[in-house]
Amino acid sequence: MITPRFSCSQTEASVLVKIYCPSVRASDVEINVDETLFSVHINPYFLRLNFPHPLIEDDASAAAYDPSSGYLTVTLTKQTSGLEFKDLDLLAKLLAPRPPREAVTQPLIEVLRSSDNSLLDEDEELAARTQELSLSQEQEEILHAAENDWQLPQTLPESLPPLQTSARCRYGFLDMHSGYFVHIEHVENEVNELGADAETCAPSERRRRRLKHEDEKWDEEHYMADFADDEYIRELIAWPNPLTTSAEQFQYTEKENMAMLRLPRKEYLPTVEQTHELYLTLLTILFSYAYDVRTTQHEPTPESAWTIASLTPAFSALDPPPYAPSSRGPLSLSVDELEVTFAASYRRSLSFPLYRSWALAEACRIDVARLLAGGKRMVTRCLLELKEILEHHDVYYVYSKVWVEDLCVWTVAYSDDAVLEGLGKSIEAMAMKKAMVGWDLEELEGLTREDADHGPDSDDESEDEIERMLPAPL
């Protein structure tokens, strides 16, 4: 079946679904409405949408097909007239499966076989009786201790390490993926920091290697040179980012709508802790995107995929946040945790790309805050563009497969506008300190200023004067 192009709009009492299905017979159309679930089948097209509020079929409902344009327009009546249906422009959210009526709060266990003591053989029965006897003796000791007010020693049981049934370690969105880097040694993946061990590195080892590689790539002279000669960097910082400065009403383009239709139809059941980690990872990806947008002035280059992949720890080292334990609840993102997350992105922006400037990193952080202020619509637009950049690269498309594609679906269907907007306000109000990255930036900047204040010494001036007096070469 083919998922057709479609768009949705609404009036005070109805929802209108406009479906592009050319060269079909209108008499074959099958339409079904089940509370919030709407489906239409007209061979070879099938569309199923999940709306936020119930719909009904009544005398006001209708379907009209225009063979000249190829559009089928279905009018559905709202069960509650006047109720606003939000997010009708988020097509991927409408295509997402309907969530279960009762949320699953704990893993479900299937009992494969049950047996009682009557079916045990003699040895097993003897072992069971011995265990019962030892338990009854232990209970008597506990009761006797309670009568005499004895203080029995108590210790918390040690937590068991996670069970590993394979030498491979999973990675990517919700740790759903593996196998993408099996033959990495035969691929020109310049951003991969784990080498041939990408499939077997434990999370702690990934982080250790990432930090080590950042320290090795850190170049004091490069940073000082960019600090001293920052004319072009100041131009990049002053450039007005159209994504954050445009006052036009937000509306997806036809290209973006088609990109959302091509997203996979998946349902995710992340835990509260995993949702917490997804929001933090989203921040690091948006920072890398904001850096590329600002340094290319929103005109991606052949190097854009490398820049984005290099600056994102979840891509280059398969090391997503959190980078520090949360001091608050799983859904509460503290300022300290946000600072640690951005410090990781700052480190990479000061170690790998062409322009290495603290002021530029600060401008990218403000860009991230203002993108988040646009809610899931703006964030989805950024992720779709980033996805296209990665997928057009022969090597780095893999990071779209293991991270960005699923993150697009999750952002549209599961992220919360209130959380995103709250993050934007917190990030814009943050005061990042240069000591957070672990390098002596302030000392290097001070040395650069001193060198600029002194100017060229007399010996250098004399040598320049002598060179000017020499005859030009033939």
Structure, described:
α8 packs parallel to α11. Among the domains are: 84 residues, Immunoglobulin-like; 245 residues, no CATH class. About 5% of the residues have low confidence. By secondary structure, the chain is α+β, with helices and mostly antiparallel strands. Helix content is 46%, strand content 9%. Strands 1, 2, 6, 7 and 8 form a five-stranded antiparallel sheet that branches. A three-stranded antiparallel sheet has the order 3-4-5. It is elongated and about 85 Å long.
Walk me through the topology.
Blueprint: E1 5-10, E2 14-20, E3 30-34, E4 37-42, E5 45-50, E6 55-56, E7 62-66, E8 71-78, H1 91-95, H2 122-147, H3 203-217, H4 220-228, H5 231-238, H6 242-245, H7 254-261, H8 272-296, H9 304-311, H10 313-316, H11 335-349, H12 358-373, H13 375-391, H14 397-413, H15 417-429, H16 441-454, H17 458-469
Antiparallel strand pairs: 1-2, 2-8, 3-4, 4-5, 6-8, 7-8
Helix pairs in contact: 4-16, 8-9, 8-11, 8-12, 12-15, 13-14
What would you report as the Rg, rounded to the nearest angstrom? 30 Å
The tally of beta strands, per DSSP, is 8
Q: What is the terminal separation in angstroms?
A: 76 Å
Structural class computed from helices and strand pairing: alpha+beta
Strand content: 5-15%
Question: Can you summarize the main beta sheet?
Answer: 5 strands, antiparallel
- Overall body shape: elongated
